[in-house]
Amino acid sequence: MSGGQRLDPASGSPGTVYTAWERFVDGEDDVRGVRPEVAISWHRCREHYRVDPYITEAPVAVVEVDHTPEHDVVFAELGFRAASVAHEVSNAGGIVTVTDATGRIVGEWGDKATRAIAADCNLAPWYCWSESAAGTNGMGTALEAHAPVLIRGPEHWCRAFHDWTCAGVAVRHAVTREPIAVLNISRYRGELPTAVGAWLANAATKTQCTLRRRARDGGTELVAAYHQARAGSAVPLAAVDTAGKVVIADDTTSALLGVPAATPAIDPTVRWNPRLPELIGAARYASRQAARNPAWTGSTRLFTHLADEPTPITIRPVFLSGDLVGNLVWFGISDGEQFPGAEGAPHPRAQPRRVVATRDNRMVLLSLSEVCFAESDGNDVWLSTDQGPLRAAHQGLDKLDGELADAGFLRVHRRYLVNLSRIREVERRLKGELFLIMDDRTNKMVPVSRRNAPALRRALDI
C-alpha cells in the first residue's frame, strides 16, 4: 500500500452485510454483498476456529510468548510510530493499538473516552484479538492477511463489536514472512480518517526497512560463517536461517536439498525453501536449544531428496551480536548432542484437504484433485481448476507452495506450481528445456525452469 492509498473497500451497505452475517452465523453460505477477504475470515471463524459470534469481550491472553530481540525491535519501532500519530488519532476519536504475533495487545494510545468504551469489550493491553479468540477484526485478520485490512461494523464476526471500525497492518519477518506484530487504529461508531491508510503504510514500511536490514546483516554473517567452516573441510555443508531456509550451500548439499548451489552467495537476503519439513523442524529445535546454550551443537537424521535412507546431520548455531541468525548444517556426520526422538523426528505435517478460492463474493472449496496448477500474477495467484480459472484466497505462490508441497504438488517455475497427477505429457525441446502439458481444459503448456528440472525428474521418475 503506498503512502497515500486509502483503505476504501467495495462492499455492500451495512444493512446488506448484517443480513449476510445473520445468514452465515445461522449456517448458510450465502455471502452476497460481503467482500471476499471478509467472507473468507468468517469461514475461518465459523469452520476452523469455531468462535462464538455472540461473545461480548475478547479473552485474556493466557499464552506467554518468548520474543526474540528482532521482535523487541519491531515493538519498539511500532510503539514509537503509534505514539507519533496518537495525537491525530485521538483528535478523531480513535485509538491506536499494537499487538504481538498471537494477537495480544501490548500497547494502546489515543482518545481517553474511546479507550474507556474499548475497555468494556477488552480492547486493551493483555487481551487477545487473534481471529481464533475474537473473530474477524482489524488486528486478528491482519495477522492472517498479507495486506492491510479494514473491518467495518457488521463485518466483525462477533456482534458485540459491530459498532467498531478498525484498520490494521501486519509487520512480517523480512524472509519467512511470518507475522511479528500488528499496528491497528480503531474508532467507535464512526468512520476512520482518510489519512489512516497513509499512517499505517508509513509505519509498516519504515519498520519493514529495519527488518530487511537485519535480515541482510544476518544473511551476511551466515555466509561468512559458512566460508570459514568450509575452509579445509570437504564435508557437505549448508547455512540455513532460523526457519530452515537455505542461505548458501555447496554443490553436494544443494543436490541433497533440491536448491541451487550458490558459492559465493550473491545476495544474503535470498533464501531457498528445500521443502523438507524435517529440516525445518530440526532448525527450530536447534534455535530453541541455542537460546538456552549458545555453545550447543546437536545431531539427528533426516531424509533428503536423493536418499532412500535418512542422512545424519550436525547442526551448530550462528550468532550476530548475541542474536541467533541461523545454523550451519553438516551432512553425513553426527556430532554433538543427539536430538530427542520427539524433537528430532518431527511428525509429518497434516495434509491439506481443500484449497480455498474465490468467485465474486463467494468462497469456493476445492478438493486437491480439482486443481491442475497455480500461476502467480504479481501478488495474486490464479488456479486452473475443473471449474475454470479461480483466484486463490491467499496471496503469494510461496504460501500455497508451502501448504501443498507434501500433497502431490511441485514448484516447477517461479510462476507455476503444478499438481503432479495432472501432468499429461512432458515435452523436451532441442536445448533441453522442459515443458509440461497439463490435463486441464486448454492443455496448458507450463515451462519448467532449469533449477527445478532435477526435482521434477525425481518426482516423475524420468
Question: What does this protein structure show overall?
Answer:
It is a single chain. This protein is of the alpha+beta class and about 450 residues long. The protein folds into three domains: about 15-195, Beta-Lactamase; about 220-345, Beta-Lactamase (2-Layer Sandwich), CATH 3.30.450; about 355-460, OB fold (Dihydrolipoamide Acetyltransferase, E2P) (Beta Barrel), CATH 2.40.50. The protein is about 30% helix and about 25% strand. The chain has a seven-stranded antiparallel sheet with strand order 13-12-16-15-14-18-17. Strands 7-6-10-9-8-11 form a six-stranded mixed sheet, sandwiched between helices. Strands 2-1-5-4-3 form a five-stranded antiparallel sheet, with helices on both faces. A hairpin with a 2-residue loop joins strand 9 (about 310-320) and strand 10 (about 325-330). The protein is globular. The two termini are about 45 Å apart. Pfam families: LytTR. It comes from Amycolatopsis sacchari. This is LytTr DNA-binding domain-containing protein.
